[in-house]
Input
Amino acid sequence: MALPIRAGTEVMWYLTIPFEEDVHTLIPHIEGESSRGPGPTLCASTMYPVPPGDVLLHAQWGPFRSALWKRYGPTYISALMHRDVEGIHNEARSRAEWASALRPGSQACRTLTAEPDDWTKDSWLEVGLLPASAQDQADMVWENDMFLFRYDIEQLAACLHSAICNAPRRQTAAAWVRVRDSVRCIWGPGLTYFPDAQEPAFLDSEDDLIRLRHWRALARIMDRWDLPAHLAMGGTVRGIEEDLQEMAMREFGRKMHTFLHHRISAHTMM
Output
């Protein structure tokens, strides 16, 4: 299904109105955040507050890592969301550290054979876990990767947004609040700080207009970043994604985290 929008001026209004600047939109915040601050803080680009999706999809130990995250991940995320920004940064780990944290112990290694397809129900019970279904795994990977995508956007905005770069030091916190809230606004209305696989889709909506509207809003924010002259914001979703990847390589020395598109439709929410 598509949005009930007629072609022409109504479509242009829908795609171009800067809804990300609406101060009345309810924005998800974490502990310690308010309309006064705090100012932006940066985390090392090789550190991740949650394990990237490909860590959970390890060729051999993916089923074990996913089962472990299925059991303990919700408790970890709940505690993480009650921390302030500095606390979230402090909990971040490298890929190697996440792989180590999610590795099976010596007893589990003895119980589980090298081939996950051979693991039986008794094997899982012996290590104290229940296997994650394919849908469980897909949901966890999407949630973690979407969170890391949003996290990367905020980190890029903190580094590059002109309002931050040009603000006097005493006004940096106030400038960051406006940037922070406009960035979170484009994720979509009514969402929580940490993504939920069952939430309505906006950046990955099946509806082309909804998806483009939110990516265009991201492009408008990026248009105020300190960008190379050859990058022209706007255009297609793919073009905006490519520009983000280039900026991430320049600032982080790595690519942006990506997530699967076309998850669920949000047309009923608009």
Summary: Residues 264-270 have pLDDT under 50 and may be disordered. The radius of gyration is 20 Å. The CA atoms of residues 133 and 181 lie 35 Å apart. The first helix runs from residue 9 to 16.
